[in-house]
């Protein structure tokens, strides 16, 4: 997936298998934002999508692999 300043941010839940995206911000309540930030989902972090299905997404971020529910992934905005 191409990124750049002209690309609008999209939720991580819409990324496809094989995409590498960059986190622009994390939305949601403070608890959720804090949890995701502890996992490495902070502005500027690169996220590689390993697999994506309708309800779950598996990503690699900072050398660790995580499975996220699509509702949680929808709070991570990326380009």
From TrEMBL:
Gene3D superfamilies: 2.30.30.90. Residues 10-79 form the Ferrous iron transporter FeoA-like domain. Transmembrane segments: none annotated. It comes from the Bacteria. Keywords: Iron. InterPro entries: Fe-transptr_FeoA-like, FeoA-like, FeoA_core_dom, Transcriptional_repressor_C. SMART domains: FeoA. This is FeoA family protein.
